[in-house]
Amino acid sequence: MRISLDAGEAEAIALAKEIGADLVLLDDSDGRNIAKSVGIMFTVTIGILLRYYHGHPTDKTPLMNYWHKGSDCVKKNT
Fold it and tell me: What's the CA gap between 25 and 47, in Å, rounded?
């Protein structure tokens, strides 16, 4: 198995470990695997969006607008 980690992910993991961060945002599966192996809690972008969604129960409009724009971008790029 080969692991490919770019400089940004490596720095995020190193910094999270150094400062004892509660959570780090990592979308790359290799980055998540490394974070898990060294005991760093992580989330992905959708996790951040869901936290916002659940934290703002009265106004979902900004999130839903962002969500639909993101969905359109994914469809165009695939």
Answer: 9
